[in-house]
């Protein structure tokens, strides 16, 4: 397979956060208006410490990173997968009307002008699509674990040097080394395949290759269900409110779009009334500030199905789903944030959630408070969690008056509680004087005695007026 033009992958970029394509094809056919564009992330508009969140470590999918020298090592594995699934495709295959139309349709999905020749672009789509199918599903019992290879495959994972695994050095020269950490390679492959916003191919390409591989043996719904199950397993540590059948009843445009669907909140967006400018200037407060106002924090009950984004407030208690903050958190959410910006009709729920969490966690004490309640779990220091959400918040765009802002009622309820001075006084009393049981009992007895004294005085006054009159 031709490796393609590296210059094409380096120059095809658009600006973020505006996400306005510079060279986007103008031809849009009926039915494609709402299709999510696949755009190229531009390094110049991303914070220096966040750039690695968008770069593939070992695997290129689609045209934007195609031909990169540090990612070439995976091309041999891709060819093994294509040969195993489809065999050798005749050159005449690319000349069929159906494939030419498919390739033209795929070109229109990318925000940048793809300059590859028709056959090279089609070959890239076929190669990457076969790899996706082999990695995420079983085709007639064939999975990536049992792909025969002439290039050093070890149980479905290519050998590599440690420098190649990091994706920062080396020329991508894969070696048959049984001492390499295959789990890390697989984890990096999953990350590059599922979570990178500009490392995608249209899902309809994968569907077409699936038809070539299995004929009439399996339906597209079976394919969607199998891939959705795989993605659900990868996202197992994130709570979800949506089930596989509901996912499969909708069309997802590529694999990151599928991941995004699993994060959809249960709450429906609500239209906010009042001053738009004032609403957008309103901010969530710190967790410690809410605590001082008497707000209690509680992790959402895991036995009840809910999304990670389902934040609720009732009777002075804010319930927040559990979030594990690890080395993958920033990359996943960074790419989901940019996906929402480039595909606004899917909603900006991740943007709203990230803004909420970043404002809630503004200090190490805030992180400690939520960690005590098992709302967040951090693998390292509190400062790392703070820095992650600060960088994420730099990518987030939130319109609190927008039609897809789902936290309107929650924000209004919490804000009303926060502004009530009585709640502050009761919280101060509770935190400073009622923490010791003995002090609490003494305070209760004293309050009871005071009330009895007041009642006694009132009765005496009433008796006096009764005697006078």
List keywords for this structure.
3 domains, 4% strand, elongated, two-stranded antiparallel sheet, 469 residues, 7 strands, mainly alpha
Q: What does it look like?
A:
- It is a single chain.
- With 469 residues, this protein is mainly α.
- It is 49% helix and 4% strand.
- The chain has three domains: 6-262, no CATH class; 276-422, no CATH class; 436-468.
- It has 19 helices and seven strands.
- Strands 3-5-4 form a three-stranded mixed sheet, covered by helices on one side. A two-stranded antiparallel sheet has the order 1-2. A two-stranded parallel ribbon has the order 6-7.
- Strand 4 and strand 5 form a beta hairpin.
- The longest helix is centred in the C-terminal third of the chain and has 32 residues, at 437-468.
- The relative contact order is 0.10.
- It holds the Pfam family DUF247.
- It comes from Ananas comosus (Pineapple).
SSE order and pairing:
Elements: H1 6-11, H2 73-86, H3 97-109, H4 118-136, E1 153-154, E2 157-158, H5 162-166, H6 182-194, H7 203-214, H8 220-234, H9 244-248, H10 255-262, H11 276-281, H12 287-292, E3 296-299, E4 312-314, E5 317-320, E6 323-325, H13 329-342, H14 349-360, H15 364-372, E7 376-378, H16 382-395, H17 408-419, H18 421-433, H19 437-468
Parallel strand pairs: 3-5, 6-7
Antiparallel strand pairs: 1-2, 4-5
Helix pairs in contact: 2-4, 4-7, 13-14, 13-16, 14-16, 15-16
